[in-house]
Each structure stands twice: as structure tokens, then as C-alpha cells.
Amino acid sequence: MDQGTLVQRTIAKQIQMVRQVGKGRYGEVWMGKWRGEKVAVKVFFTTEEASWFRETEIYQTVLMRHENILGFIAADIKGTGSWTQLYLITDYHENGSLYDFLKCATLDTRALLKLAYSAACGLCHLHTEIYGTQGKPAIAHRDLKSKNILIKKNGSCCIADLGLAVKFNSDTNEVDIPLNTRVGTKRYMAPEVLDESLNKNHFQPYIMADIYSFGLIIWEMARRCITGGIVEEYQLPYYNMVPSDPSYEDMREVVCVKRLRPIVSNRWNSDECLRAVLKLMSECWAHNPASRLTALRIKKTLAKMVESQDVKI
3-class SS at 162? Predict the structure, then answer.
């Protein structure tokens, strides 16, 4: 066991669990206290060991740390014989997920741009390979959605839940796919994932599928931005086209066969900022993966808008 692992094991023993703050298909999230600071503790079901292992591995990737990616503290396994608990300890963000936040908060243009830009910065960092002896592989998320993006105190976002991530190392030209039975969230799946035409042996298709999901997340944000005193209520993408727990078939019909996309309010066209955001999201959720924007292009486009609105990042 190396020094880092040893330090992590010690941390896990020192954490005092305070209260449960969330529950997902992988397990539970608790708010805990460590050295007087609040931390988030993700406790995985034993059946989700592959997700825990993958997420731990991705967070420990060299050069992974970034202000718009959830800050990793430690991982640990606590167990007695037949009973094990898998822990992942990260920074705690009391505003919760983007999903929780948008349900109860409305945004002005500047708040919208700050959220969208910071999320794009996180995605861009994930997607980008950093070359060198201490390099970082390119990483595709594969389960981007508003529930997997957290809101920081300063109104920016960070990307979380990397249990499904895929890594790519250009040296070996290998796509490293997790040994995981879990799949992404059907509502956010790109057309090529739904109709199973995505080439699993290449890395680029996974990146392009992330971009499609990102377009839907921008749509969720934009609806909650007030212009001319008008704002839409919070809804999930395709809320009016599929059931609340859609099947593959429901999603495939809407996204691939009918080629529908989330509805857009008329007011968006009469506001300069929302019009630009609308153009951006449409270029993210294009049916053809090759015509979607890259994360870097999204980041640069939003950076220009941030600058023109004089948003403090």
C-alpha cells in the first residue's frame, strides 16, 4: 500500500457521518465532518463495486484536479467479512446538484452564463488529453445530466459522478472502458447511443455523445433564466414527450425516429443572450455527431459571452 492510500484510509476512519443528503442507483450520499470541515461521503452498494472502483481510479488520475470537477479527498473500503462498505470522500457543496438548484432558483443572464461557462470548463478539462510524462488521458463522462453537476458557493459548477467514465491514452491508442454493467441515463442518451450505432472501439464517439447531453443541460439552465419578466418552470429534457421513467424505446422513438429535441420558448429569440445560447445548444444536440461542437469550442464561445456581459468568474 503506497503512502497516498495509507493517508486516505486514515481519513476515512476519522470521518463522522452527519446526515444523508442524497440517494442514487449506486448508493447514498452523506454529509460528514472531517477535521471540522464538511465533506461529502458517497457510500456505494456492494453491487456497485465496479462504479466505486472506476470513479476512484478516475479521480486519482494525474492532473485530474480542476476547479470545475468535484474535488476528490479519499476512497476507502470498510468491511467485516461478508459485509463491505465502499466510500468515496469528496468536497461538499451545500447547494446540491444543478437539478436541485434549478428547481427552486431562477437565474439572470449573468448567473446563467456563469453556470454554463464553468460546466463547459469542467467538461473541456475532462475531454482534453494532457501530454507529457505526467500526462492526463482524455476522459469521456458518459452520464452527464443536471443531477451529476454540483453548484458551488460562488455560483459556478463542478462535474461529479465519474463511475461510468471512459479513458483514452493516445500512446497506446486504447479505449479503457469500465467493467461496469451500469449504463447512462436514458433521457440524456445521444441518438447514436439509443440506436446502438456508436462505435465502441473508438474514443471520439464517446466525447461527441457527452456533448449532446451537455446541450440538454444548457436547455435546462436557459429555461430558468428570466428575460422581460418571463421564465419557464423547471423541467427535465423531453418532459412533455416521454414518460417520467422513459424506456429505451420511448427515447429512441422521440430522439432518433422523430428526431425531436426539447421545445424552446419564443421569448428566447427576442433576447440576445438566450438567442446565442439557443444556437449553442442546437449545435450540441445535432443528430449527426460530427456536426456537434467540441467542448473547447463551447468553452470559447461562452467565454466571449461572459466577457461581453462582464460576468465575474
Answer: coil
pLDDT, tens digit, 9 for 90 and up, residues 73-102: 999 988 777 778 899 999 999 999 999 999
- Counting every residue written for the chain, the total comes to 313
Considering the candidates 143, 161, 210, 271, report the single residue annotated as catalytic: 143
Separate counts of helices (H) and strands (E) for the chain: 9, 10
* ∠ Cα 143 189 257 (to 5°): 180
143 is catalytic: yes
Q: Is the Cβ–Cβ distance between 87 and 73 less than 8 Å? A: no
- State the number of CA atoms in the 13 A half-sphere of 195 facing the CB: 13
Using alpha carbons, select from 97, 229, 107 the residue that is nearest to residue 161: 97
Phi and psi at residue 249, in whole multiples of 5°?
-60, -45
What is the set of domains in the chain, with CATH numbers? 3-91 (3.30.200.20), 98-308 (1.10.510.10)
Instruction: Report the C-alpha gap between 197 and 4 in whole angstroms.
Output: 41
Phi, psi of 174 (to 5 degrees): -105, 135
Query: Residues comprising the binding site for ATP?
Result: 42
Task: Supply the pTM of this predicted model.
Answer: 0.94
